[in-house]
Design a protein that fits this description.
The protein is an all-alpha fold and 319 residues long. It contains 15 helices and no strands. Keywords: Cell membrane, Membrane, Transmembrane, Transmembrane helix, Transport.
């Protein structure tokens, strides 16, 4: 008797569970999430195909010996030969070194200069809003505009840079044609464009810090320099990391700037970076598989920049 009652109770419980699942499924299909799917689903699908599909296809190409549109990739014979060639290629070594120098110098100087400008603006200088706009304006320019502007600035005969240093009895210098000067000239132009961005990031961080800390440091007899150096700047770690990641990503995307400035896939030796080598190997030499391997190396470098940032944000509870 008890076993039959248990069976009936179990059947009733099972039917109730099935009905509950059906009710939840009906609520799900009627939810705003599902009804809005045509608006977010299609863009998500296109982004997935364009971004992640492209990444997967590029990696597959790098494992073949694909030479261009006139042939089909042989996906049945995948190997790491292109990566072995890339790791032993002196051109890859040179461009990787230039990329690293550009990455470190551009990011470091932009951060320091942006922090300096942010501290000045944080001290409530006169015409603060106008100064902020002036320094931020270059960030609104595209790489193409910035490249053409500084190409004129560096002009050997009529450029403003040589004209100014000529007032001090120096120059003129061939900033673009001299391999020992051109990388520095490019880095300076990029710093001019992005230091305003780092200034805004640091200024936002400074304005989020309570004035009570300044007052406490003043009461303790600390100077303005010591207050910023020992109390305020250490609290800008999050701003520093965020700005550094953005700057490094832009540094890895330098191809547009270099092509706009020099008009060729092969810029001067001092500024030949992995991005220009990648495009040159693909579109000039038709070595698509080899170019894809260089692109994958660039992707790995980007992930090495982004992954620690995401981990830091996770540790800070921001993700």
């Amino acid at each position: 008797m008890e076993s039959s009652q248990d069976a009936v109770a179990g059947a009733g419980t099972g039917e109730h569970a099935v009905e509950d699942r059906r009710a939840r499924l009906r609520r799900f299909w009627k939810s705003d999430f599902v009804r809005s799917a045509p608006y977010w689903g299609i863009p998500l699908l296109l982004m997935g195909l364009a971004v992640y599909g492209g990444i997967i296809w590029n990696i597959l190409i790098s494992l073949t010996d694909y030479q261009g549109f006139l042939e089909r990739p042989d996906y049945g014979n995948l190997d790491l030969e292109m990566y072995r060639q890339a790791l032993s290629d002196s051109a890859v070594h040179l461009t990787a070194r230039n990329t690293f120098v550009l990455l470190v110098a551009f990011t470091s100087v932009s951060l320091v200069l942006g922090l300096f400008l942010a501290v000045l603006l944080d001290r409530d200088i006169r015409e603060k809003s106008k100064v902020q706009t002036i320094y931020l304006l270059p960030m609104a320019l595209s790489f193409v505009v910035t490249a053409q502007f500084w190409l004129w600035m560096y002009n050997y005969n009529d450029g403003l840079v040589n004209t100014v240093i000529g007032l001090f009895g120096l120059g003129p210098y061939n900033w673009i044609g001299n391999p020992s000067l051109v990388l520095g000239a490019v880095i300076f132009a990029l710093i001019w464009q992005f230091s305003g961005y780092t200034m805004v990031v640091f200024l936002a961080g400074l304005q989020s810090i309570s004035n009570d800390q300044f007052e406490a440091a003043r009461v303790d007899g600390a100077s303005i320099f010591k207050t910023y150096w020992r109390v305020i700047i250490p609290q800008l770690k999050s701003s520093s990391v965020s700005a550094a990641v953005v700057l490094m990503i832009f540094a890895l995307k330098i191809f547009t700037f270099l092509y706009a400035m020099f008009g060729t896939y092969r810029p001067p030796k001092g500024t030949d970076v992995l991005a220009t080598l990648m495009v040159r190997e693909a579109f000039q030499l038709q070595k698509w598989a080899y170019s894809a391997s260089i692109a994958t190396i660039l992707l790995a470098m980007s992930l090495l920049v982004i992954a620690p940032y995401l981990y830091y944000q996770y540790r800070e509870g921001a993700l």
